[in-house]
Specification:
- The chain is an alpha/beta fold.
- The chain has 17 helices and 16 strands.
- It has helices spanning 25-38, 52-62, 88-95, 109-115, 120-135, 148-154, 156-168, 185-202, 225-234, 256-266, 280-291, 312-320, 347-357, 366-381, 389-399, 448-460, 512-540; strands spanning 6-9, 42-46, 70-76, 100-106, 140-146, 173-178, 213-218, 239-242, 308-309, 338-339, 408-417, 425-434, 437-445, 471-479, 490-497, 502-509.
- The radius of gyration is 29 Å and the shape is elongated.
Length: 541
């Protein structure tokens, strides 16, 4: 049986070096708890010698019960010319009271002599002294060989000496770092094989019986961090460093949301328990939201588009056998299959999506053909239903005569006024009819769409109390073709939610208010239709 692969997460330290990524100490603790729930083995919390925020995190972590993960403090080897016990950064690591400490040291003679102005001999002493000092004080010491692959390519003998210095001082793990992210997978494979052979010869043992673990820490500057990490595991490396969503300096680090499912589902390696993989997508989104970074839809395994199907032939196939166009059941990683509706759609897309949305279609296929034709016409006009499920459901219900109109617009008027240095203020008046009853209402807002939304909500609230729970959570405007300047056609997306549902709607027009009204109207109609369906389903139960 193969040995388990240890997952070492450095989102809270290396991940925060990414552009525009900052976490408070409290946010770090929340992420650490989520990582622990997933089942990662190590959580690198930060560099306590570098900033007060990380010191605060480690204080909070001391009062937290982690079930799986070992909290790790990160730092550097001692400074030149002083004893390890007198180094302030090493003392800060001990004051963090973590069971594991990770330190990095210089491996590349370029850095030692040119960048630091140090000697090669003193650098080896710094590594050895620091590891030995920490080894007497904590349960586990991990040594990160910074720039190892670049160092090995230029001076393999010295690069190996730095590893041996750490190993002789009883480091528990030696981590080979591709700090510049420029190493290719075949180079990774060759270098790791040579390192294993050299270390085995030095310690007179088999490469599989070395008295320490080997680890990999890859950066993504060539887009190969995941590939290098997987290659390293194939060559016997047992500790993999990375971050959630690949966040990190420059182009980022190896993305654990890809590495973990690859190891578990593709390579059958023991790392994270299979049942916990279902937490992966939610963890990815949680870290994105905490970092205030828009999630990348195309991120493998956990992205919104990872299991999205648009081509009609593809959809027809997955309706018969999902694995025909999917390498993995999306539910394994907590994701879901999505079928997109566009001018590339065929009947299969429409039928799959209608079933997903709970809409009955005619058995003879006439409804499907009619809907496909109308979708293609509307997309020519600028609509995109692949990102507007709410509008699509309203549309197909209308086209199949299943739509019960909850309200009708009679008219609206929107005005915006500006007084000297005061901000603009908008007003809207709207007239609607619900059955035989007419309602006229006025409202203000921070902009014309806000005023229109407030007026419509106010008018409908007398008839539909379900709207109390509905909220607009996103509003986007896109110019479809800017060649006509301010008279160009625009596309408006609105995302809304209530306690149980999240839906998107769309409007298209040369007039931004008209486009916004279309999206608003669909959003409210979707909500009211869905509320009616939910009540009917509850009655049936």
């Amino acid at each position: 049986m193969t040995e388990p692969i240890l997952i070492y997460d450095t989102t809270l330290r290396d991940g925060t070096q990414g552009e525009n990524i900052n976490f408070s100490a409290e946010e770090k603790l929340k992420i650490a708890r989520k990582l622990d729930e997933l089942g990662v083995h190590y959580i690198e919390g930060g560099w306590p010698g570098s900033n007060p925020r990380d010191i605060q995190f480690f204080k909070l972590a001391q009062r937290t019960d982690f079930k799986q993960a070992r909290i790790t403090a990160f730092g550097a080897t001692r400074r030149p010319g002083i004893a390890a016990a007198d180094d302030g950064n090493l003392q800060a690591l001990l004051k963090s009271h973590t069971p594991v400490v990770a330190i990095f040291g210089k491996t590349w003679d370029l850095h030692v002599e040119t960048v630091m102005g140090n000697t090669l001999e003193e650098n080896l002493a710094m590594i050895s002294d620091s590891v030995a000092f920490l080894n007497d004080e904590v349960d586990e010491v991990i040594y990160d060989a910074e720039h190892f692959f670049d160092a090995y390519k230029e001076n393999p003998d010295y690069a190996l000496k730095t590893l041996i210095a750490a190993a002789d001082a009883k480091a528990d793990a030696l981590v080979l770092c591709d700090t510049n992210g420029g190493t290719l997978p075949f180079e990774t494979e060759t270098i790791i094989t040579e390192v294993q052979t050299a270390l085995a010869a030095h310690y007179k043992t088999d490469p599989a019986a070395l008295p320490f673990l080997l680890g990999i820490h890859s950066h993504d500057d060539c887009g190969l961090a995941v590939a290098n990490s997987i290659t390293a595991v194939r060559k016997g490396v047992r500790m993999v460093h990375g971050t959630i969503n690949g966040y990190g300096e420059r182009c980022g680090n190896a993305d654990l949301t890809a590495i973990i499912p690859i190891l578990r589902t593709k390579m059958n390696r023991d790392c994270i328990r299979t049942e916990r993989l279902k937490k992966l997508r939610k963890l990815s989104r949680f870290v994105s939201e905490t970092a205030n970074i828009v999630p990348r839809n195309t991120r493998p395994f956990v992205g919104k588009s990872a299991f999205a199907h648009k081509g009609g032939i593809h959809v027809s196939a997955i309706m018969k056998e999902a694995r025909a166009y999917e390498h993995l059941d999306p539910e394994v990683v907590g994701n879901r299959r999505r079928v997109l509706i566009s001018d590339l759609s065929g009947r299969s897309n429409i039928e799959y999506k209608a079933k997903e949305l709970g809409v009955e279609l005619g058995a003879n296929g006439y409804d499907s053909r009619k809907i496909v034709t109308r979708i293609k016409e509307l997309e020519q006009m600028g609509y995109q239903f692949e990102v507007a499920d709410g509008s699509f459901k309203v549309l197909i219900k209308k086209l199949t005569d299943q739509f019960k109109v909850p309200f009708l617009l009679e008219s609206f008027r929107v005005s915006t006024e500006k007084d000297k240095n005061k901000p603009c203020r908008s007003h809207a008046t709207i007239k609607i009819s619900v059955g035989d009853t007419h309602e006229i209402t006025a409202a203000e807002g921070d902009g014309p769409v806000s005023a229109l939304d407030n007026a419509l909500r106010k008018a409908l609230s007398k008839f539909f109390p379900d709207l109390e729970a509905m909220r607009l959570v996103d509003f986007k405007v896109r110019v479809i073709d800017g060649r006509h300047g301010t008279s160009s056609k625009v596309r408006v997306f609105i995302e809304s939610r209530d306690h149980d549902h999240l839906w998107s709607t769309i409007g298209v027009s040369e007039d931004i208010i008209e486009a916004s009204w279309q999206a608003l109207e669909d959003s409210f109609q979707y909500k009211l239709t869905q509320a009616s369906e939910d009540r009917n389903n509850a009655c049936k139960c």
